[in-house]
Input
Amino acid sequence: MSRLGNLGARLYRGEVGYDFIGNRKIWYGISILITITAIVGLAVSGLNMGIEFKGGAVFTTPKTSVSVEKAEDLASTSSGHQAIVQKLGNGGLRIQITEVDTSKSDAIKGDLSKGLSVPEEKIAADLVGPSWGEQIANKAWTGLGVFMVLVVIYLAIAFEWRMAIAALVALIHDITITVGIYALVGFEVTPGTVIGLLTILGYSLYDTVVVFDSLKEGTKGITKQTRWTYSEIANRSINGTLVRSINTTIVALLPVAGLLFIGGGVLGAGMLNDISLALFVGLAAGAYSSIFIATPLVADLKEREPQMKALKKRVLAKRAAAAAKGELSEAEQSDRADRGATQDVAPAGAVVGQRQEPPRGHGRTPGKRR
Output
């Protein structure tokens, strides 16, 4: 078994682990700081809305030897607005200019034909109205609202309302950070960005539900025992699914990182940045929130219940009594038993200890028949 697999098995059995719940105030503080930074960036810089939302014209030219920088200067001078130019795979250019109407687009098209030395009839011009972008934005907000409501209802039924609230807080946390990163970086917001934002909600919820399911199984009949408190079981649930969450997140991030850094950065395919940045930031934030936000928040809410408070008092009282007698508590005995059990398992599937042979009947000698 690999080191990572061995670590995952030990985390699952509770032999090793990190106190995520005990240090939850640190994670809350980090998340609040990141969220405030994202909100400030959004308020100061704002989102760089694409032409689909602001309206304007998109000009597509055939192959030309003119550089992107020169084309940007030409288009900006002709239109009086900032132009965004992207190099296409066939050697042509895609030029976006916001706030351009039909009458002005014809004049810009003529200027581009002269400046780029291409026939005017071969330059394709598409006009986008701002009303279309408003429709997309409204539908996106509607879809987001419906998704949030359905998630809360489902989690409240499948688990409980406290887990539904914690998952909702984690989702809002992830969306806020992703949108704030967009504002700080200055990437253009397009319909691809909206698709990316809606996509990360599912990824963010996946890791959270995995931990919640483990927590639900571990807390069945919790008030009938005096070994663990709710927070301790929640912490064991996080550690038990930690390696799985890390593995799935890394596997999901690798192709997205390829789109963002290689496709968008090295190859210059700027249109890939729209969706890849949202996915990359959202996946990372979703993995973080499922471990450091959602489950600790559930533990905080549950520990406020009278039953959980009474359970915690019984557990601590029993441990104090055991410590006074110089005995090990049930939790410590369980941990020691788990560690002892793993010592009986040899690597490579070897069997440790004396092998028990099945009893032989009537004193027969193997291999002989009467």
